[in-house]
Amino acid sequence: PYTWGRWWAQVLTELGADVGSVAETRLTGESAHAQALKGMLDGGWTAVSHNSQCGEGWDASGPRAAGVLIAVRSDYVGSWDMVARDKHGRAVAGSITTKNGQLVRVVGTHGVPGASLPGFAYNARDVTVEKDLCEFVVHEQSLADAQGRVLVVMGDMNSISSLDLDRWGGTYQIRDASFARTLQETGFLDTFRTLHPATRAFTYFTEHGSASRLDQIWIYVPPAIEVTICNAAVVWRWLKKAD
C-alpha cells in the first residue's frame, strides 16, 4: 500500500492537479489505509481513504472492489475538514478552503459497477448500494445549500447520462436511478459536458471494443455563488491511464 500511495501521488503531481480522487482502491484494514496515506504524504499529498469491510451477507468481492480516496496537495495551507464517509466504501467527503476564503466540499466516489448495463436492476444488493450512494451525495448537496459552499463530486461514477455521447458500441441503458442521472437531475453540472456539449469521449475501454465515459467530475453551485468552469478534459492515450 505504501508504494501504491507513492505511485498515485506521482500521478497526481504529473497531472498538475490541486485535488484528486482515486477510485477502486481495494484497501482493507487500518494498516493498509495508513500505509497508503503515508505513501501519499511522502509524495506531497494529504489524503483521506475509505473502504467497507466484509460483513454478514456481503461476498468478499464487494468491499475489495470498492474503496475511494481523496487527496489535496500538501503545500495547501490546511487539511481535510469535516470528513464524512458512506457505509459501503464508495464515497468519502471532505472540505477545504480556497485562498479567497471560499469553502469547497469534495466528494470522491466509486459508483457501483454495471449501473448502465442491462440487468442491473435485478441485483437487489447493487441497487441498494447505489441508492445509498445517491442519498449520501444528495445529503451533501442539501448541506451545500444550507452552508453556501461549492460541492464537487469526482471519481468513477460507473454510469453514464447520455447514450449518444458517453458510450461507443456495447449495450448500455440510461436508468433514472443511476448515480450519473441522479446528479444530473438534482442540479449538478457535468464539467466536461458543460464545456463540450457535443463531444463523444470515453475513459473506459472493454476488451470487446466498446467504450464509455464512466469517470467524471460534477459540480454543484448554490444560487448565491458564482463559479466559472475554466477547463475540462479527458486525457487521450495517457501512458498511466487506468479505468
Structure explained in plain terms:
The strands form three sheets. This protein has a six-stranded mixed β-sheet with strand order 4-5-6-7-12-9. Strands 1-3-2 form a three-stranded antiparallel β-sheet, with helices on one face. The protein has six helices and twelve strands. Mean pLDDT is 91; it is low at 54-60. The chain is of the alpha+beta class. The longest helix is centred in the middle third of the chain and has 24 residues, at 124-147.
SS-derived structural category:
alpha+beta
The radius of gyration is: 17 Å
Question: How many β-strand runs?
Answer: 12
Mean pLDDT: 91
Distance between the termini: 19 Å
**Could you give a short account of the major beta sheet?**
6 strands, mixed
Count of alpha and pi helical runs: 6
General shape: globular
Strand order of the largest sheet: 4-5-6-7-12-9
For this structure, the quaternary state is single chain
Order of helices and strands: HEHEHEEEEHEEHEHEEE
Task: Give a concise summary.
With 243 residues, this protein is of the alpha+beta class. It has six helices and twelve strands.
